[in-house]
Amino acid sequence: MVTARQIAQLCGVSVATVSRVFNRPATVSAATREHVERVARDLDFSPNEAARALSRQRSTMVGLVWDTDHRRHSWRHPFLQDLLLGLKSALSSRGYHLLMLATSDDSGSRNPGASLADPVAYVSMTRRHHLAGLVLIDSGTDAEAFSAFAHSGLPCVALDVALSGPRATYVTSDNASGAADAVRHLAALGHRRIATITGPHGNVPAAARTDGYLRGLAEAELPFREDLVVTGDFYRESGFAEMRRLLARADPPTAVFAASDEMAVGALLAARAAGCRVPDDVAVVGFDDIEVASLVDPALTTVAQDKRGFGTAAAGALLSMLDSDEVPEPVRLPTKLVVRDSCGSQR
Predict the structure, then answer these.
(1) Quick one: fold of 175-305?
(2) pLDDT, tens digit, for every residue of 39-49?
(3) Which of 178, 257, 300, 333 is deepest in the core (most CB within 10 A)?
(4) pLDDT digit string (tens) for 71-106?
(5) CA distance 150 to 157
(6) Is 61-173+308-333 a CATH 3.30.420.240 domain?
(7) Using one digit for the tens of pLDDT, what is the confidence trace for 124-172?
């Protein structure tokens, strides 16, 4: 294994200079830095991460707090997979590594200090790992733990949770506006009985999309009907079940806004099973614009989120806090209505 001392000898500089090249490059002249980096690349030299963290008094590890209980669907959601790619890529470009922190699996066997049910112990664990910061993904029941993280002084960025604290901020999409755009589009096509399949109770994006649905109805001067609001869980099976309930009504909706594409695909399947044609008998709009939205038949009209941009923005907010004492303002990413074949005019 090539050492820093060998690199120093080959370059004719001191070991301290080699260390500064990789840890405090601004303190080394451009010519020396380029020479050392070129020799290091040729010899496949990689400075030890632990030594770098100590010399810089900063870890290069960022913790991802996410409940990955195998009985939950969330870790398999296509939207989150794309988001993680954006997050990892942006952090890696700055030399940071992403460490997923395991939470309780609720099986009766707990890893001490690694359960969101015990947030104080969890914060203590993050400090033992000398993490530079945290990215937090809410499972729907993590409010107490997230509050503890936000007030720990460790840089934190939450996804879709309005987190506040001395070193905390968050990234979200404009969920309400996106949902309102979907409802206005359906109203413009002549639909008057527009239903929604919401996300789960207690979920922040789900609540915002329901608010947007209500706003869209109001702006289109359509009455709110409680019987046209049903609750899903963002996944296909619930979309199928709730669409069947809606279509079984004596006065079924002519259009349905589902708060996720997964539920919208389930709704399409339920409509087909009930003998309804989409969009002739019922129009369907989703939310997210995951890959399957353009592959189903008919192709799904949906509200697109910037999935990779979401992760990139979260990384950018965290890196900003790591580079300075400033806490960036929350980021609200725009959404875009993508019109495909699952919507038609109401005749």
Answers:
(1) Rossmann fold (3.40.50)
(2) 888 777 766 65
(3) 257
(4) 445 555 677 788 888 999 999 988 898 888 755 544
(5) 9
(6) no
(7) 777 777 788 999 987 665 667 788 888 888 899 999 888 888 999 999 9
Kindly state the tokens that stand for 91.
């952090």
